[in-house]
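Service request form, structural biology core

Requester: graduate student, group of Dr. S.
Request type: structure prediction, single chain
Budget code: on file
Notes: please return the result as structure tokens.

Sequence provided:
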Amino acid sequence: MAFPFQKYLPKRFRSDAIVVPVVRLSGPIMAGSGPLRASISLASVAPLLEKAFAMKASPVVALSINSPGGSPVQSRLIYRRIRDLAAEKKKHVIVFVEDVAASGGYMIACAGDEIVADPSSIVGSIGVVSGGFGFVEALQKLGVERRVHTSGTNKAVLDPFRPEREEDVAHLLALQKEIHETFIDLVKDSRGAKLADHPDLFTGLFWTGRRGIDLGLVDSLGDARSVLKERYGEKVKLALVQPARGFLSRRFGSGSASMEGGFLDPARIGTGVIDRLASIAEERLLYARYGL
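Core staff response, request fulfilled:
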């Protein structure tokens, strides 16, 4: 990033290297992410995007995505924020896919003016999924009686401790259909005529980056450093945009502990560790869907 005072320096002291801001979006997508949850949300990435797009000297913003998906709402909010900033700041956006940009991760990738992937990257999975467990027989074997009292006949829809009802499943599938249609419309608006006429494109299937080119899900193959050097010269510099962090947040993670009487609260540290372990397990399940 060129500093304002550089224009007053003699030409031989000025840097002619183009600096490209890079924002890394890594992890599952969900609301309420924080230092102990390696996940993506609008709240966590908005400040980074603002910093990146505020770099006036750079003609482009690079996004590095590695996400198996997650919340469709957070995915779309992030997509929208990127496109709004790109229009406002008149910046070209290049998305670089690492291991995976699937489901909500691919939705965010569509915010790029172009998408670059590794040949072995996983892309696509344009669909909607909901999962859960049923514990009806387990309760019966344990001799446990489930007691639920509601003021609405549908307030306990899809209760995992009750037998599944057809009308509940039908309602869920209807909701999924609406969300899926919103996802499809976003991909079509973003990729346009680049998309291939393939019967499985919007069925939730996923492909490698190499196959993604044939399907119109990806524009080219490569990595950030190589592509940006080819575009902007050997002197191009990649500047990773990171959140500002104080001493305690670097050491313990903001929100993982609290100061009471000048000491760290062990109970909050323990809660933070448990929360982090749970998020790791959830993250592994999401990545495992794509063989990663």
